[in-house]
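I'll show a typical protein example:
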Amino acid sequence: MSPSVADLPSGLSDSQIASFWRDGYLLIPNYLSQTQCTTLLSRINQLLTDFTLKDHPMTKFVTGEQKDGVYEGDTHVGDDYFLTSGDKVRFFFEEDAFDKNGDLSKPKEKAINKIGHNLHGLVEEFGQISHAGKIGQQNAAIAKDLGYRDPRLLQSMVICKQPEIGGAVPPHQDSTFLYTDKPSAVGFWIALEDATKENGCLSFAPGSHRRAPIRERMVRAKGNAGTVFEKITTDEQKWPRGFDHEEADSEEDYQLGEVKAGTLVLIHGNILHKSEKNLSQKGRMIYTFHLIEGEEHYDDRNWLQVPGGPAAFTKLDGTA
């Protein structure tokens, strides 16, 4: 039987902390029980069933390709539906969910790539495993152990990785998309179903967070006309505060991160990670949210903005 949250130790052990800083990611099995995973999957299915295509702009979630760790071209989504999603729950389609005529080739419930970006604030079941309740207290303890002084939860998402059409995600670093000066993002990634090689589990380049600086960031284009990638100009702005980094490798070796449902994966904002396309008949639902350090500068050029600015990002202090 999986342990309940009440049975889990507060925060991280010394060995877990050491492993996270060595590798740039950490797998914590049984963070959620199978019952909790089933409850969240049921809520996701309800969201997918209930949302309507009426007036939906049919926005796709598109990822860019990288060369030498740098994204090429403006290939990320950037329409108004995406740019105003920071305080809402919105639905983004898989690229391959459409036929050559631009019509959906799958039922809408099997065509969505992700739901975001304020599930934690607007859907109680997700708030309860992000910042509220006993699990919120546990997450706050983990954030403290990772050195956060003022952890702020700024976005949350369900990634569906649909059967047969779940898109590949090229190597990337989360701080590219959630940039603070200096980089401070950490992802809390929770598998709600088993994630395997066959259905597109994550892969990590262990230790790459010590070798791969954040070379550019995704920002809003002038006049909020989509998004562009802007180069980061100084070495000081590319690394977390006080970070002891190594020389960059020309090529990185990736390790599969196959995990069972209920596993929490902590992901450093600078680590290179990716996932392959899901060509299997089994989906791979996950829930993820990201923290940044509230004491670092988060400016209005970042694509994700909410009413009230960064001060309105959810405090992760274990009291909600």
User: Anything to note?
Assistant: The CA atoms of residues 179 and 217 lie 7 Å apart. DSSP finds six helices and 16 strands in the chain. The domain at 5-308 is CATH 2.60.120.620 (Jelly Rolls). Confidence is low (pLDDT under 50) at residues 1-6, 66-76.
